[in-house]
Write a structure and sequence with these properties.
With 218 residues, the protein is an alpha/beta fold. Helices cover 44% and strands 13% of the residues. It has a single domain, classed as Rossmann fold. The radius of gyration is 17 Å and the shape is globular. Bound molecules: ligand Z5A. The site of ligand Z5A has 25 residues, from helix 1, helix 4 and helix 8.
Length: 218
């Protein structure tokens, strides 16, 4: 008699280095799932339109300086602003595709190598946020992404920063978060990568277990 338990939406996060193709792939996944009749939404962090998002946007574009801790907490607040909405959409059966999430939040700040801002410190404000059911990580080297369009226009888009970010992503993903992580080889043409993402996602689309939240790093 579990059949009357309504399936909730699935929380899918797409992560990766700058120019790994996250936004292009999220859009293709959204279209593919909608074509299959799923109710799906796309959201992106940072959300540059919210109150915190406007400050973050000015910082990323180099128009304003911020203390490393302060901007870190604003990026986290930017997610907390959306958390209630995410929960209610999921419980209404809507699947959500998230373009960057807490993983980016922790690694970009920790990559600054500020001695008072470790990966563990950076993760802490994420504790309690909805934990994704599926993490799709677009794996590619910073040398490959540097060849793609638009690189080098914002803060953090330097080779040195990108390679630290890559190592920190590896460290963070090797810690057990208790959810499914799929590494997707993002060097291939867009359509090929899109097929892999869709295949990884299709097995996860009827989620009935309760939504979980992020725990402290162990
Ligand atoms: N940040 C942070 O510090 N803390 C946080 O909590 C969060 C983020 C959430 C802005 O993020 C910055 O904020 C980011 C992390 C930091 N660091 N930097 N810089 P953002 O998500 O707003 O960044 P973005 O500039 O909008 O996106 P992106 O990550 O740089 O790109 P992407 O979404 O991965 O790639 P794309 O836009 O889909 O594609 C990029 C280009 O590559 C484009 O010309 C495509 O046509 C091309 N492309 C895509 N796929 C392929 C393939 N397969 N082959 C060839 N070319 C391709």
């Amino acid at each position: 008699f579990h059949e009357d338990v309504k399936a909730r939406g699935v929380l899918i996060v797409v992560e990766g280095l700058d120019r790994a193709g996250k936004t292009v792939q999220c859009q293709l996944l959204l279209d593919a799932l909608q074509q299959r009749g799923h109710q799906v939404k796309y959201i992106k962090f940072p959300d540059r339109n919210s109150l915190t998002g406007k400050i973050i946007n000015g910082y990323l574009q180099g128009q304003a300086q911020q203390d490393d801790h302060s901007i870190h907490l604003l990026f986290s607040a930017n997610r907390w602003e959306a958390a209630q909405r995410i929960r209610s959409d999921l419980s209404n059966g809507i699947t959500i595709i998230v373009d960057r999430y807490s993983y980016s939040g922790a690694v970009y700040s920790a990559a600054k190598e500020n001695p008072d801002l470790s990966l563990e410190w950076a993760w802490q404000p994420e504790v309690g946020l909805p934990r994704p059911d599926l993490l799709l990580f677009l794996s590619i080297s910073s040398e490959e992404t540097a060849k793609r369009g638009g690189y080098g226009e914002e803060r953090y888009e330097t080779d040195a920063m990108q390679s630290k970010v890559r190592h920190l992503f590896e460290r963070l993903l090797s810690m057990n978060h208790g959810h499914d992580v799929h590494l997707i080889d993002a060097r291939f043409p867009v359509d090929q990568v899109a097929k892999e993402l869709l295949n990884s996602t299709l097995g996860h689309l009827s989620e009935r277990k309760p939504l979980e939240t992020f725990a402290k790093l162990r």
